[in-house]
Design brief:
Blueprint (H helix, E strand, L loop, with lengths): L21 H6 L4 E5 L2 E4 L4 E4 L2 H4 L8 H11 L13 H13 L6 E5 L2 H18 L7 E5 L8 H6 L3 H5 L9 E4 L5 H4 L15 H9 L4 E6 L15 H11 L3 E5 L13 H5 L5 E4 L11 E5 L1 H8 L18 H16 L2 H17 L7 E7 L2 E6 L8 H12 L2 E2 L1 E3 L2 E4 L7 H17 L2
Parallel strand pairs: 3-13, 5-6, 5-7, 7-8, 8-9
Antiparallel strand pairs: 1-2, 2-3, 4-10, 9-10, 11-12, 12-15, 14-15
Helix pairs in contact: 3-13, 4-13, 5-12, 14-16, 15-16
The structure holds pyridoxal-5'-phosphate (PLP).
Cofactor: pyridoxal 5'-phosphate
Organism: Advenella kashmirensis W13003
Protein name: Beta alanine--pyruvate aminotransferase
Length: about 450
Amino acid sequence: MEKPMTTETPDLTHLWMPFTANRRFKEAPRLLASAKGMYYTSTDGRQILDGCAGLWCVNAGHCREPIAQAIATQVSTLDYAPSFQMGHPLAFKAATAVAALMPTGMQRIFFTNSGSESVDTALKIALAYHRANGQPQRTRLIGRERGYHGVGFGGISVGGISPNRKAFSNSLLPNVDHLPHTHNLEHNAFSKGQPAWGAHLADELERIVALHDASTIAAVIVEPMAGSTGVLIPPEGYLQRLREITHKHGILLIFDEVITGFGRLGANTASDYFGVTPDILTMAKGISNAAVPAGAVAVNNTLYDTVINAGDNGIELFHGYTYSGHPLAMAAITAALELYQSEHIFDNARTLSPAFEAAAHGMNGLPNVIDVRNLGIVAGVELAPRKDAPGARAAEVFQRCYDAGVLLRYTGDTIAISPPLIISQEQIGTIFDVLGKAISETA
Ligand SMILES: Cc1ncc(COP(=O)(O)O)c(C=O)c1O
């Protein structure tokens, strides 16, 4: 059935929009009315090619029938079931399906509703594990500069994006330290795939360990590939080095795979892609193809056993959400994971990544392009910031692309490209043609 298209602009007064320049947006709103496959339709009736999978989350494309059907059936079968001291079969089935895609030994799944909740859950599980393991003094958390781990107080504390922290700086978690980020244009500009330079930056963890003593450190959390900060690809050997150092000191390693999980790099997870297994892995976004808000945390089986077996027979972890394992999310997850498999969507991402890489690096040489970086079906095109107006150039390029029918993202002066994984080679061409033209036309 054709969906009705809204053409009227609604009253924009009451909605406080997240991570949005509200005043500017409301002066010139960009409103989407419907979506199908690779395209949105805007309220002014234009087809917009989705170059960023919504917010890195619609991996199988929009409004996929099997997922929509599963949700529709579920909402009239079991709309809600309590998640505390009660269960429903689909939550166990969904956990089994998610566990099957996780690295070996990480088959225990805790459900959340978002990436931010997954991160805060992961941090709490890390602390609970050390307590259960007889090391309650291990409470220090190590994040990384430029890391994005959502917007909970835990997430912004270990996160490293300064505007996200600034207004809350007196209220962040105590006992947090940060690794340096790995972005370096002098050494790595225009790297194709993983940059060769920078593995040694993981050794900074040894310095932090020496400063605080390993016995006080609970966990290190990083995005194996950082998306939201503007696409930062880990240098070759960097993640392996982090894993070696964390192992050596009994520190847990958390991979925040909210973006990289479910095919973005052409593998089940970034852990799989890089061959580095963390102790805890956070997910959201693609887990349900974004059709229902959902997230999860995969935990090493031994960690789970340690926490579960530590106490008496009471509640082992005082943590959870009213909507952990929500039936609609479980239906969406189960259907999405089946769809990913039946349509070989992660394979498509892997097969297309060389063409995607070539098209992205076609931006090299255009005016003001100071870097292109890529991995899997993700690319970042960094522009030189305008004097006294950081971000303005990328904002203009973003708007030009939108006006020309391609939706992208920008962070600072980096344009991020991360389309649904069902994209065709022709659509990859369209995205970069439009982007290239927009960059060329922007002073
Ligand atoms: C790596 C990472 N962690 C956490 C989050 C937060 O997810 P959410 O917005 O669903 O809370 C994001 C969102 O982009 C993310 O990229």
